[in-house]
Amino acid sequence: MSTATIYSERNKNSKHNMNDPLVQVQNLKIHYPIKKGIITRTVGNVKAVDGLNFNIYPGETLALVGESGCGKSTTGRGIVKLEEPTDGKVIFDGKDLSSIKGSELRGVRTKMQIIFQDPYSSLNPRMRVGDLLAEPLLAHKLANGAEVNRKVDELLEIVGLTKGHRARYPHEFSGGQRQRVGIARALILNPKLVVCDEPVSALDVSIQAQVLNLLKDLQKEFNLTYLFIAHGLGAVKYISDRIAVMYLGKIVEIGKTEDIFKNPKHPYSQVLLSAYPIPNPHLRNRKRIVIEGDVPSPANPPKGCSFHTRCPIAQSICREQTPELNGIEHSVACHFPIS
């Protein structure tokens, strides 16, 4: 039985109820202290992630989109425990990650992996690709000897490389090939959740399509669940089942991909979608929505709705009260959602 078949069968036979969330993010906050002076006193906090609530269900792809600096990557890193939350919980596969440590946390880490944006900086330049892929198996004592080599060879072929590539160093690959190595490394431990942190943004357009197709194929083959972080809406529309729109550390809208693209309810979502190029010539006459001003500092976010300083329909209540996400399948955090 091949490695792919073994991995697929393991995830299919998981006891997790497919109707229950694989990941539950509850009031997640990640703040970074601002230090000042010789004594190094804290004078404030950068609120990179400021109270997120959402679920990710088994087998789906949830896309997290927004401008650079809105907290997307920090959210992904917080979910896989590369960043310690300031407050809130991440419940993965029924386990509260804030309450487990040591060997138990180490065991959970094998089920949640991350694909980084820059494949070159995330790969050790002094290690051959075969050793890079074998290292997680050896560290977690999941294989040894010939079995390690067999799994490495099979996974290289699955991601579109060859056995001969195992002897090469990262600098000997193209950008697309390096990202394939990064994908293989994320899959070598047979995870349930993969956080894809802008995995195609550093690649050429033609290579982006190849990598997106590979991710979709691997999701079916390995029964994977993705958190897909991006700001390119073309990739998001192609690969995601649901979209969460993020602005200044908060989610302002979340819903099915088709619903978000056809009927965005938050003014910020409309701004993002107005910049998305549409190939249909009948729709090219739509107006581009241009908003004034810059994104406020996450160290000093505005009171009330975080988007009100740039929102074209903001009213007095928007400056005073923070809107909550309302709705079930399509939720929006806005006092005056657009129908």
TrEMBL record:
Annotated keywords: ATP-binding, Nucleotide-binding, Transport
InterPro entries reported for this sequence: AAA+_ATPase, ABC_transp_ATP-bind, ABC_transporter-like_ATP-bd, ABC_transporter-like_CS, Oligopep_ABC_C, P-loop_NTPase
PROSITE patterns: ABC_TRANSPORTER_1, ABC_TRANSPORTER_2
Residues in ABC transporter domain copies: 34-273
SMART domains: AAA
Gene3D superfamilies: P-loop containing nucleotide triphosphate hydrolases (3.40.50.300)
UniProt name for this protein: Peptide/nickel transport system ATP-binding protein/oligopeptide transport system ATP-binding protein
Organism, scientific name: Litchfieldia salsa
